[in-house]
Amino acid sequence: MKHILFAMAMLAALSACGEKPQALQTSKRDASAYTGTGKAFVNKDWKQGDKASWESHLKARNQYGQNDYTRMN
Fold first, then answer.
1. What whole-number distance in Å separates Cα of residue 12 and Cα of residue 17?
2. CA distance linking residue 13 with residue 68, whole number of Å
């Protein structure tokens, strides 16, 4: 009985060794968010690479889209 429990415990302990690492694979790790992705599917008012435009859009989205106090009225 002890041998069966020991074998099951060893199998359970070794089962985690086969898991593959789950690292994030991206091509632009060091790029800032305002530089964009190079794709055409972005907001029409925002120009990729323009930091001031990125910050103003982010501020507007946070103030009016995610602020519960402004949405209650």
1. 10
2. 47
17: phi then psi, degrees, rounded to nearest 5: -70, -20
pLDDT tens for 18-60 read 777 777 766 556 777 778 777 777 777 777 888 888 888 888 8
- 25 to 19, 28, 29, 40, 52: CA distances (angstroms): 17, 9, 9, 22, 28
Contact present, 63 and 70 (Cβ < 8 Å): yes
Residue 65's Cβ-side half-sphere holds a number of Cα atoms within 13 Å equal to: 6
Residue 46 burial class via C-beta count within 10 angstroms: exposed 0-12, middle 13-18, buried 19 and up? middle
Per-residue pLDDT band for 63 (boundaries 50, 70, 90) equals confident
